[in-house]
Amino acid sequence: MIVLLSKGECRARDLSQMLGIREKEVYAHLSHIERSVTSQKKKLIIIASRCLSCEYVFDRRKRFTKPGRCPRCKSERIQEPTYRVV
Question: CA–CA separation, 66 vs 76, rounded Å?
Answer without folding.
Answer: 10
